[in-house]
Design a protein that fits this description.
The chain has 2 domains: 216 residues, Rossmann fold, CATH 3.40.50; 91 residues, Rossmann fold, CATH 3.40.50. It is built from 14 helices and 10 strands. The strands form 2 sheets. Strands 1-2-10-7-8-9 form a 6-stranded mixed sheet, with helices on both faces. A 4-stranded parallel sheet has the order 5-4-3-6. Helix 1 packs across helix 3, helix 1 packs across helix 8 and helix 5 runs parallel beside helix 6.
Length: 325
Amino acid sequence: MSALAITVGDVEAARARISGVAARTPVLRNAKADAAAGASLFFKCENLQRTGAFKIRGAYNALAQLSAAQKTAGIVASSSGNHAQGVALAGQMLGIPVIVFMPQDASRAKLAATRALGADVRLYDRKAEDGLALAGALAHATGMALIPPADHRDIMAGQGTLALELIEEAGPLDMLVGPIGQGGILSGCAVAAKARDPACRIVGVEPEAGNDAQQSFRKGEIVEIASPDTIADGAKSRHVGALNFPILHALLDDIVTVSDAALARTMRFFAAEMKMVVEPTGCLAAAAALEGGIALKGLRVGVIVSGGNVDMAQYISLLGSGEAA
């Protein structure tokens, strides 16, 4: 692991840094889920995290380490919503100005929440423009620090803290299953999980319509795709991060995909059986586990539930539909 961007030591340092800031979210069990998967599933519920997603972990870890001059100048980021809320909250707590580029078609709930946390939100067309490029250009022109959603050592280390918590509470795992957008959460968690138990298998899950990480994993190099059309708005990435990919390629055992219809069914499962609101992206890992996308029989499996931020109108529509819209 020494050749990779982060080590478990970085994750441990991040845990100390975010202590008292990020919540230690619960690990929940469900008998019907275990029966459906034929396995013992341990759901790490980051939908119950502050701002409704895991992103505060990496965001606070990154912003807390900025120099005094950088904190005064402020930071700029690009996000479809959850990272936006994470950096907005971290900026609010640390007194750091935050500008976030968000796509015009971002969840209205995520847009409103990011603005409510004091961030300056600037909209762009994700089909014609690259939000991270816009953020990078502004950072270069102003001297603000660029804090990307995944491709950043401190972001990865912060996200990896959830895997440490999961393993401490659930005990040894045969497998850890998590979502992949640009790769920030699973790269950090893979480093943490493999350090605790090298035999633990790591499987990533992304939407069928946007399988850039799966293509990259199989080809051995980063593959870029067009902006995918999926209800999993947090996984509409066009490619994985440059720092994330070597970790994913080295430590993951497989990357699988799930359909939007499977995500909708999993949202309904969480609502009906576990009384939880989970956004489509947050359902990626659970959908693969519950619908047979991964061979799990007899295993102890950690399942990352990454977020619960979803527009209520979309949520109600998906709960009542037979298929994903």
